[in-house]
């Protein structure tokens, strides 16, 4: 009996010692990296859903005039307890300005102004607080009023010429795609129809282009091509047609054409009408199967899905006049491969009748962009300028040998 008790006691002490050792043992891999990755990912998700919710609820449109969180909550039918925290979170990201002086007077004035003038876009002249808000601080600014910041007024108000509402909607659709990632990993990429897809995304691409990409690209092209001699231009896979419209505006003797899928060119018509571009026309079709026309002095192609497909090169060369210039802009493969997440994103969905390539923005019949450029020469297109742009893309200029 004594030996049994002694043995039991020794085992208990031994187990306690092992437990103590296990408890005090740290992982060999530093935990800081793991927690940083997870926490930054969750933070990004929170910020994304915050912006999406604010846009969906109409917060930015409502705050074209200064309102307190309480009045805003009542106006939008939201919870009055959550709204101050919601506004502070948007303020911390720079999407809202916060004013703490003359609150009640300004709020009453804003409400009267809204009734008499509609959704006024006048700016509040009070003193804004800093955006450097501690995210963990207690919200005590119940008397403060909020107003759209210059950032959100520029990019999130519908009335702004630089509104990114379609871009935001497209980004949110992409987020929903990632929400379904486990299911997609099991059943394979989601299938989408080309026409409807590009018809929807063309608005997003147009909004992006208006924020610097269009202006930069047109400037670079004009610096490398003598547009005084250009009479006929083709924007191949041109989507919204803003590039063709801009080129036509800069040369009164230029006739420009935008070639794209029929559902897309229906949207192109809207942009042509919006900007009064009478010398820009559309050519509906599928450039993989249909003729693209002829007699062009310039064929321009920017981020064209077929921009790395060799089978299109003979068609492009044939459509150019002798001495004509082919301008193409794409993301080089080496830049795409540096982002495995982007490549995964590209492969989460595909078109019904077109298979994609492994890397981002490539298709089954695509070749690396550098290889594509080397192929131009074999079809009478001589490269005379290659420029790397700030966004990671590359613009290549080639003229058709007479």
3D structure, described in words:
With 402 residues, this protein is α/β, with parallel strands linked by helices. It has 16 helices and twelve strands. It has two domains: 124 residues, Winged helix-like DNA-binding domain superfamily/Winged helix DNA-binding domain (Arc Repressor Mutant, subunit A, Orthogonal Bundle), CATH 1.10.10; 229 residues, Rossmann fold. Helix 8 packs across helix 10. About 5% of the residues have low confidence. Pfam families: Dimerisation, Methyltransf_2. Keywords: Methyltransferase, S-adenosyl-L-methionine, Transferase.
Q: What is the structure about, briefly put?
A:
Keywords: Methyltransferase, S-adenosyl-L-methionine, Transferase. Residues 103-136 are annotated as: Disordered. This protein has helices spanning 2-24, 31-57, 59-62, 69-76, 82-93, 103-117, 150-155, 165-179, 181-187, 194-224, 242-250, 262-274, 313-319, 333-337, 340-347, 369-376, and strands at residues 67-68, 96-99, 145-148, 190-192, 232-236, 255-260, 280-284, 296-302, 320-330, 349-351, 381-388, 394-400.
């Amino acid at each position: 009996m004594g030996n049994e008790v002694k043995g039991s006691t020794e085992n208990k002490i031994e187990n306690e010692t092992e437990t103590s050792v296990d408890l005090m043992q740290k992982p060999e891999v530093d935990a800081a990296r793991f927690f940083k990755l997870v926490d930054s990912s969750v933070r990004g998700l929170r910020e994304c859903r915050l912006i999406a919710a604010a846009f969906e609820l109409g917060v930015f449109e409502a705050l074209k005039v200064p309102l307190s969180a309480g009045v805003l909550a009542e106006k939008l039918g939201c919870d009055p307890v959550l709204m101050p925290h919601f506004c502070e979170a948007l303020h911390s990201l720079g999407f809202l300005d916060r004013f703490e002086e003359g609150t009640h007077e300004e709020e009453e004035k804003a409400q009267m102004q809204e009734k008499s003038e509609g959704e006024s876009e006048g700016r509040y002249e009070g003193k804004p607080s800093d955006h450097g808000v501690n995210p963990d601080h207690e919200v005590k600014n119940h008397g403060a009023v909020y107003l759209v910041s210059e950032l959100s007024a520029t990019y999130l108000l519908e009335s702004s010429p630089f509104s990114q509402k379609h871009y935001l909607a497209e980004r949110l659709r992409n987020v929903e795609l990632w929400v379904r990632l486990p299911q997609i990993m099991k059943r394979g990429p989601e299938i989408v129809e080309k026409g409807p897809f590009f018809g929807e995304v063309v608005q997003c691409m147009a909004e992006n282009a208006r924020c610097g990409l269009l202006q930069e690209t047109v400037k670079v092209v004009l610096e490398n091509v003598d547009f005084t001699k250009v009479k006929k231009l083709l924007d191949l896979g041109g989507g919204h047609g803003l590039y063709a419209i801009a080129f036509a505006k800069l040369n009164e003797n230029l006739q420009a054409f935008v070639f794209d899928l029929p559902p897309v060119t229906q949207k192109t018509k809207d942009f042509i009408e919006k900007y009064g571009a009478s010398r820009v026309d559309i050519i509906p079709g599928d450039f993989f199967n249909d003729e693209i026309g002829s007699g062009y002095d310039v064929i321009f192609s920017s981020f064209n899905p077929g921009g790395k497909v060799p089978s299109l090169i003979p068609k492009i060369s044939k459509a150019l006049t002798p001495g004509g210039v082919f301008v193409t802009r794409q993301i080089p493969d080496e830049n795409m491969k540096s982002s495995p997440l982007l490549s995964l994103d590209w492969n989460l969905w595909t078109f019904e009748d077109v298979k994609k390539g492994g890397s981002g923005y490539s298709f089954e019949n695509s070749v690396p962009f550098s290889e594509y450029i080397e192929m131009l020469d074999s079809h009478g297109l001589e490269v005379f300028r290659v420029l790397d742009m700030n966004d990671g893309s590359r613009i290549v200029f080639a003229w058709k040998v007479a």
